[in-house]
# Entry
Amino acid sequence: MSFKKIIKLSTPVLAAAALLISAPASADGEAVYKKACTMCHGSGMMGAPKTGDSAAWADRIAQGNDTLYNHAINGIGTMKPKGGKKSLSDDEVKAAVDYMVSQVK
# Structure
């Protein structure tokens, strides 16, 4: 097989591989929550709304997702930005917020 034919046949495969490597993985909200949020939101530590407490979350949810995401990413009150887990991506934080909200809906 000629070199040109090998290149022609492998180009689509290489392009697909590049997309897979560069595509961000979808964040698993529950896993992020367990890793980074459960200490405070599981117990209500430092005034954090407890996961599953619909009364504690109602007013927060009413503010909309953008506000929830902003508070989780940038911090609010005693909560540090990203819950003090600087290594989390914004998408991971948003996924964790979505998970917590899903627990009261």
